[in-house]
Amino acid sequence: VVTLKFITARFIDEIINEWDQLVIPEIVASDVTIFGLNPFYDDPYTGFDGTKAAVAELRHAFPDLKATIVD
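-> C-alpha cells emitted (71 positions)
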C-alpha cells in the first residue's frame, strides 16, 4: 500500500533534495497545481513541467536547501 507519507518522503528526498526530475511523473499527478515562492505575484505552476519549474525556483532561491522529515 502506497501511503501519502511514503509519497511525500519520496518527493522531499528525490525531487527537493536530489533534484531527480525523472521521478516527477512517478510521484506527481499530471494535473497538479503548485504555487511559487510568492503566490501573490506568480501564476501557479501546473503539471510535470510546472513541478520542475517550481522546484527549480525553490532551488534557485535556496541553493543549499536540504529538507529533513522528522517523524
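The two ends are 19 Å apart (CA to CA).
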